Structure formats: C-alpha cells, structure tokens
Amino acid sequence: MMVPSQASGSAEDPDGLEDRLRRFATIWSRAVFPSAATSLTRPEFEKLLLPLARELNLALHARHFDNAPAQRVGTALVTLHCTDPEALARTLGVVDSYLVLYCGTEELGAEEGRARCARLQHALAGGFAQALRERTLAEQEAIARSALSARSSAEEALHATQARFLAVFEGAAIGIVIADLEGNVLEVNDTLTKMFGGLEHHVRSRNVNQWVHPEDRPQVWRLHGELVRGEREHFRAEKPFYRNDGTVLWTNLTFSLLRDAEGQPQYQLALLEDTTERRLLNLRLRYEATHDALTGLPNRTLFFERLDKTLAAPDNARFGLCYLDLDGFKAINDSLGHSSGDRLLVEVADRLQSCATAPGEMVARLGGDEFVALTTGPDTQTEVADLASRILGALATPIRLDGREFTVRGSIGVVEGLAAEHTAAAVLRSADITMYRAKAAGGNRFELADPEADARAITRHGLTTALPAALERDEFFIEYQPLVRLDDATVHGAEALVRWHHPQHGVLAPDRFIALAERTGLIVPLGRWVLEQSVRQAMLWQDDRPEGAAPGLLTVNVNLSPTQLHHPGLVADTVDILERVGLPPGALCLEVTESALIGADEDLLKPLRQLAEMGVEIALDDFGTGYSNLANLRRLPVSVLKLDRSFTQGMQQHPADEVDLKIVEGIVSLAHSLDLAVTVEGVETGAQADHLRRLGCDTAQGWYYARPGPPSQLHRLLLVDAV
C-alpha cells in the first residue's frame, strides 16, 4: 500500500513523515475525543495523541518487531481518561484503517505492514485492557475493603457504613463475591449474577471451590489454598467459568484475603471482570496476525512458531519439511491478472490443505506462490516423501479459471532430520536451496536436501556477495599463459587469465566466479580492469623486450564475456585504454567465444567490427563447440580461430587419431582460405605440437610450453628466444 503524497516534506522532514503523523493524530482525536472523559479541548487532546502516533510508527518499522510500544499506547489511553469501551473500538478502527496508509513504506511491504498492524492492534487492546483492569480493580478493591472494614466500626457509624458498602457493592461494574474461608458464598452483587446468567440462587448455592473449569491453570488453586491458609494476601489470574447455560465466561479474577481486627483470616473477597468479549477480540486479532488473508492458511509468523516448537522437541524427535514454489506462476499472473492469480492460489491452498490432514502435519503460505508443509513423528523419513508426492499429485489435476484449464506445476525442496540438529533458519535455507535444485532439474518434482549441495550453494552466494568488495580491495590478479609460434617456437604473446585471491578460499580460478560476475553485472567493471591491466602489461613487455628477440608486436589476448559484448561502452573503453597506455591496437587480441556469436545480429557485431577496423585482433574462442555454420565465418569480424582442445586430445596417443588429424587439417585449410590464423589450446605434449605444426597451425598454448604464471615468466621466455 502506498503512503499519501509526501510533497509537504520540509528540509527537517524530507519525506513528510511528521506531517503524516499529525494527520493520523488528527483522525485519531476526532474518532476518540467524543468518548473521552476529559476537560481538554480537542486540539489539546490531539497534541497528547501525537507522541503515541510516533510510538506506533516506530513499532511498525522496528527491525526486530516488539509489541511493547503498542501496549504502552493502550496504557496511555487509559491515563488520558479514554476508558469508555467505545474509545478502544474507535482506536483499533483508526489504527487498522490508517496506520499503514500514513506510515507504511515500500521497504516494509504491504503484506508485512498489514501483519504488523494487526499485531499492534492486539497489543494495544491488551495494554488498554490491562491498564483499565488495574485501575478499576484498585478502586473497587479499595472500596470493598473499606466497606467490609466499616462493618466492624463503631455502632454509631454502622448505618452509614452499610449504606456506602451497599452502594459500592451493588453499583460496581465488576462482579463481587464474599465467601467464608470454607468457600461458602455469603454475598454476591447483581453484576456477578448477570455475568453468570441471572440466576442468583444458582450462584449462592455453590461453593467457590466447585467453580472449576478444565482450562484452569494448575497454579490457580494452589494460590487459592495459600490465600485461605493466610500464606498470601491476594493473587490474580485469568480464569474461565461455566455459566448456567453451559457457555464459558472468561474473567480476570482477583482473590483477596480479609482479616478481622486481630489480623486473623475471616473472609475471601473475589473480584471478577468479564473479559469474554475482549478475549474473543484478542483471538480474532491473533488469528488475523497469524493467518494468510487470501488463503486462510497459517502465515509465515505462525509457521515459524510451529517450526521453532518442533525443533525444540526432545532428543530423537524428527521432522520433515516440504518447501513448494509454483512453476510459471508469474506467467499466469501476467497473462490473466492478479485477480485470477489470487483465485488460483486459493485453489492451490485448498488442495495443499487436503494433503496435510494427519496428526502433526500443517500447511502454511509464506508469501507469493511459496508454500510449506511440515510433518512430525517417528517416521518422517518416509512420511515427508509421501507428503511431497501427494502434493504433486494434488496439483496435477488442472484448475479451471475463466473458462480455461491450467495445469499447475510445482518444485519442492524436502528437508528431513533430527529436530535437535537443526535451526529454523538453517532448515528454511536448505529447503529453499533444494527447491531451486528441483526447479533447475525441470520442475514438477521434489528433491531431497543434500548438505554438500547446500554448502556449494552457500559458498556461491558468499562469493557473489563478496565480489564487489573484492574488486575494491584489489583481490584480483592476472596470470599470463604464453602463445607460441609453431613454426619457430618463438613467443608470440600471452593470454591474460584473471584469478581471485579470496581471503578464506585462497586462489580461485575463473570458473569459480566469472559466471557469478555475469549474473550480478560486476563482469563489466571487472572486465574493464582486466583489459587495462593486461594492456599496461603488454606495453611493459614491448618496452622491456630483450635484444635479439623475434621481431613483431607481442600480443596480449583478453577474454570478453557475452555481457561485455552487449555493453554500450565496450568500444569507448577499449579505445580510451589503448590511447592512455600507448599500446598499438595490433598488440591487443580480444577473445570471444563461439557460442556468444551464434545467431549474432549486426547490432552485436558492430562494436567488434569497429574494433577490428582499428586494428584490434578478434579471436573466435573455443571454436568447434558451438555448432555454428562454418559459412558464417565470412561475416564475422574475426582474424583468429582458437581451436578447442577437444580436437587435439587424440593427438596425444600414438599413433594419433586419424579422424582428429583430418578434422584439424580441414579447419586449418578453411581458416587459411579465409585469411584467418589458427591458434590451438591445450597443447600438453611434444607429439601434439609436432602434429599441429605439420598441419599448418599458426600458434599454440598449453602446459607443454608453460603454465599460466606471472608476467615475468613471459620475459624469461623472451630471453630464451633471444639466446
């Protein structure tokens, strides 16, 4: 839900929060003031409500939600003499309708805001009731004590005392019972008689010790026994009673011991406040706070309460959890609208509910199209798999919406184990990771949690979040693998290979983080950094080239990712780096994978053409793995083919694989006919190098020549060439 316009924000209050709080306080005062017993004017009353509005706003947005501020607001209303029940009802109505409207934010979210608002209403009503009860009981108990004490006063004041006692006793808003120490009822007032159904003789004829109820807390009667024995003066408790018609009366009960003039116990005094309606209100607020408004299923709050309780069970207790996410739900929402999507979610919720009917099973909606099912018991290893199968089976029947049938598919992550070995956060994290594994495997299936897979996923997440800071902290470095001319074995250049020196995981190869950088967009600044560092290193090689080394430019090959190819600043960044460093364009070779150029249109090829026209070499990397049409080579702005290592593995054996030899020979012939040079990757033996040289390949790289290493390695090889 969006908040009202924030255009009125000042320099001190840029988002207009204080102005919105004043509007909220104005609405609140207008609703409550008519029922407040106060001599203040409404504007004065409104000023007193403004700090309370601020407390509610802070509680709504607290990082760790806390009911205490709302309870204090309820207590403050009683302090302001808003003791009429209508004041509470109107306050709850204002909070329900306007708190999120005026104080909600997009960061909080509509669903979370409504859930928190409901819990705040619950706490506010509780604080109001507690304060009102304490105030009323204090007044009434003091009056009742005074009245009973007055009965033993001097004879001349007896009549007046009795009159005052009867006025208080009969006019009290709470039920009053006076009994002897054996529990025999001596006096009851009309309020108590009405609370129990209006039959006074049914109340008087019963002993207070008979007023038991199955939901009585054990300590209630223990405390009552201590009171009758004179070991305590009073106690308070929430206690239910049966009415004459069998219905339940819930009360806040205060029992007090009355002593005679010598201090000996003489009577029991019970004050009963009818809290049945308030309890029903609290139950309703509790239900709304713990159940999903759309589907009626338990929500995230209630589910975590149940999960925490399950995981706190004694040793050897087991649990099973199914984490369900609907496959393709967004497409249904986008095509049919949110109203139809909501109806589909309701139908899915009904089907899930029908799957979890056994003792110890529950289904909840976490939000959106995510649901969870929990099962407990001694045999959850079997039961949780059966539950997941029942869920998939229930979803298999098509759902009919607006005259169309939809087959709902779902991916389920299943976690099962000993309760004592898990925390709620770890269980949900594992279930979420496992659910995405099921989705990646095609969906409409369930997968069992795998601790090793979880660890890999957590590590990937950790690397993803650490990537931006790693670039700022200079944790990346570059190794270079030499490129060697096959005809004379001299160094032609080197390929730049980025590495990450991670503080915890050590040196990571590109296959551990390049894909993560692609997904997060960090590949663009990282690629720009690699390009600049490599160009600077190539310039140093040119300047420090030993005398006698083979003539010609030493090239540096830098890999370009698909994301970099689509980035609009590719050409400008490359030109800027070359001009600032002073490296000739011909000394730079940009490697692009064949798969990145399959089906590429002219818009994608345009930056590569511009760079090629400047003199920058463009190499088609991993050639032979992307199923591209060989005829397309004519339209690609490439000058080098880098043959994938899979074509040369057969040359390591003796005799060499004839098929591999013919394939490579054909590719080399085709490339040379198109004026393309051929580089071969993964050369590991002298036999491979000899075959490739005879087949006409131009350059090669691999462990046979040198592993990737520091820049100084290339300089040493140049010295060898010079000698």
Keywords:
single chain, 723 residues, alpha/beta, eight-stranded mixed barrel, 25 helices, elongated, disordered N terminus
How does the major sheet shape up?
8 strands, mixed, barrel
Indicate the radius of gyration in whole angstroms.
Answer: 40 Å
Number of helices: 25
Distance between the termini: 76 Å
Give the % helix.
Answer: 40-55%
> Quick check: average pLDDT?
83
Low-confidence stretches: 1-9
- Total strand segments: 21
Please state how the strands of the largest beta sheet are arranged side by side: 13-14-16-17-18-19-20-21
Which range does the strand content fall in? 15-25%
Q: Structural class from helices and strands? A: alpha/beta
Shape: elongated
Structure description:
This protein has 723 residues and is α/β, with parallel strands linked by helices. The chain contains 25 helices and 21 strands. It has an 8-stranded mixed beta barrel, surrounded by 4 helices. Helix 2 packs across helix 5 (110-150), helix 4 runs antiparallel to helix 5 and helix 13 (338-355) crosses helix 14 (380-396). The two termini are 76 Å apart.
